[in-house]
Amino acid sequence: MSDSVKREYQSPLRSAQAQATRRRIVAAAADLFVSSGFAGTSVDAIADVAGVSRKTVFTAVGGKTELLALALDWAVAGDDVPVPLAARPDVIALLGLPRPGAVLDAWAAVLTDIDARVDGLFAALECAAASDEVARALFDRVSAQRREGAAAVVDAVAALGGLRDELSRSEAVDLAALFTEPLLHRRLVGARGWSRRRFETWLADTLRRQLLSRPDSR
């Protein structure tokens, strides 16, 4: 067998192994960021938990900020497939629903799933952003992405004629972004023990009452 054929055969295996190592590193980093905070987590600790060298952490992903950014991206998506949230089938489907209330109900369901994966990481990022400039830049980027998502939902509701008349688009996006803050899930579900269903129902009801001209319409 020629060297070129060997390389061709071995490449997919090496790629799969590299991705598995990357997943292990990101998972270790995510767990430590949630349990110990961004400042309290070292690259050495991440390497130790992941079972790799410090050099491998930097080679596979990067430093702590890159690790937190990737952990957040994967937690939001629910996997490591490089497809943005806006292009995911459930988000595309909810933006195409025919009734304003149904759009918000479906959004609340999607966000409740996301929050369960992301709220601890978001809390770690928010805390880090108070004292770390690089973390602050990441926090601002994540916040801007959240606002873009809220704006897409508000625009879908407005296109269906469901938005409250007294709300400007900017105000509606402000409210949508505020009430879908991941830390609300952390406080109500994590700290206060609300069930997933209770939180989802509360979130959908709150979004309806804050944004819709007819909150109870189905």
TrEMBL record:
One of its GO terms (molecular function) is DNA-binding transcription factor activity. Residues 19-79 form the HTH tetR-type domain. Residues 42-61 bind DNA. It comes from the Bacteria. Keywords: DNA-binding, Transcription, Transcription regulation. Pfam families: TetR_N (PF00440). This is Putative HTH-type transcriptional regulator TtgW. It comes from Mycolicibacterium chubuense (Mycobacterium chubuense). The lineage of its organism: Bacteria, Bacillati, Actinomycetota, Actinomycetes, Mycobacteriales.
